[in-house]
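From the methods appendix. Each design record in this collection lists the tokenized structure first, followed by the designed amino acid sequence. Records were kept in a plain field format so they could be parsed without special tools. The example shown here is representative of the layout used throughout.

RECORD:
FOLD TOKENS (371 positions):
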């Protein structure tokens, strides 16, 4: 088992399986509906946004220079002080007072979700979304809350006969209870997390939920083996680690410094003007389980800002996959990820999180992934 999974049991106090113990950060889905999300129609009238309109955290890397007002409007948002406040809150290191931001700038923004069904797209044809407060990040994890709550409910309905080993029932319930607890805690603390930490938490909740749903399907068929539970347990380990860290005001997961060196051909000369792309291994292994928007966000958020070579960045401690390619080709790389066509990746396992900072070496053009 990975060192990360082993570390969890030193840190997490599990909720009992009986009774209705109050969980840290406990909250109903109703509490996380976007009360401070408003819409402005073509006439200028301001109204509360309908519950169907969901938000998502979007991380993007600008391909061309662009000012903050344009960024907001392009994402279906109103250019007003409170909505601008949201943008500044999520991007505290950016100086928005100097006009256009340069190409290559990473930006985080909470935007109306339009890609999963037609509602958002049609609703926003003649409207702009605005925020009554900059602190609205909690509504970006509404889907994770609903998903983990449903998984927990489904799990507790499974009979002992669903498992190869009867002892697996209690362990399975404990794991999904911890995932649901982590989701509620992240939602409660979302507005105090950085955009990067929020993206880390959302990914880990999504990946643990994917594995939980897969294990539940096996259990429904009476085919839940101990080996399957062990795989699910490993996938859920980061969410367990997140609980005490977020409760104590830390980042959901630790970070480590990764350095990438790209050399020209067989020489010792550094190659230049290359992008270091980074994704969690779970996204590359299961691209169809993540939306295009989520892949875009994770790729932009976790990839290096500094161009290679050499280049360094602090990367969250999850099972990581890294590759190199032409600069600022994020949309093209998203398409490669979706089609399972990303090759020449190098792994950095999460078991290495206490090891010295890794140095990854590539050769150009042999190791360059082209769109």
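DESIGN:
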């Amino acid at each position: 088992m990975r060192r990360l999974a082993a570390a969890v049991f030193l840190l997490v106090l599990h909720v009992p399986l009986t009774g209705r113990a109050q969980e840290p950060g406990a909250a109903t889905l109703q509490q996380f509906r976007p009360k401070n999300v408003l819409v402005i129609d073509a006439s200028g009238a301001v109204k509360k946004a309908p519950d169907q309109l969901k938000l998502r955290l979007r991380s993007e890397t600008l391909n061309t220079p662009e000012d903050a007002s344009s960024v907001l409007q392009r994402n279906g948002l109103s250019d007003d002080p409170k909505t601008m406040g949201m943008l500044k809150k999520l991007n505290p290191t950016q100086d928005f007072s100097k006009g256009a931001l340069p190409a290559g700038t990473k930006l985080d923004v909470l935007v109306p979700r339009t890609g999963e069904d037609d509602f958002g797209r049609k609703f926003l044809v003649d409207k702009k979304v605005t925020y009554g407060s900059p602190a609205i990040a909690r509504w970006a994890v509404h889907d994770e809350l609903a998903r983990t709550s449903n998984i927990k409910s489904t799990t507790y309905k499974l009979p002992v006969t669903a498992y190869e080993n009867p002892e697996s029932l209690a362990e399975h319930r404990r794991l999904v209870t911890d995932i649901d607890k982590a989701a509620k805690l992240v939602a409660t603390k979302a507005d105090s997390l950085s955009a990067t930490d929020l993206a880390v938490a959302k990914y880990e909740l999504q990946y643990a939920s994917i594995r939980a749903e897969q294990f539940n399907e096996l259990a429904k068929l009476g085919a839940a083996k101990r080996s399957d539970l062990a795989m699910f347990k490993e996938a859920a380990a980061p969410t367990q680690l997140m609980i005490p860290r977020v409760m104590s005001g830390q980042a959901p997961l630790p970070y480590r410094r990764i350095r990438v060196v790209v050399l020209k051909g067989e020489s010792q000369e550094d190659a230049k003007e290359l992008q270091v792309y980074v994704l969690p291994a779970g996204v590359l292994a299961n691209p169809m389980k993540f939306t295009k928007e989520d892949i875009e966000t994770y790729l932009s958020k976790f990839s290096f800002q500094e161009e290679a070579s050499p280049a360094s960045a602090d990367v969250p401690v999850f099972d990581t996959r890294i590759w190199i390619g032409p600069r600022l080709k994020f949309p093209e790389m998203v398409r490669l990820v979706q089609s399972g066509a990303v090759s020449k990746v190098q792994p950095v396992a999460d078991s290495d999180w206490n090891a010295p900072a890794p140095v990854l070496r590539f050769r150009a053009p042999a190791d360059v992934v082209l769109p």
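APPENDIX NOTE: The first strand starts at residue 37 and ends at 41.
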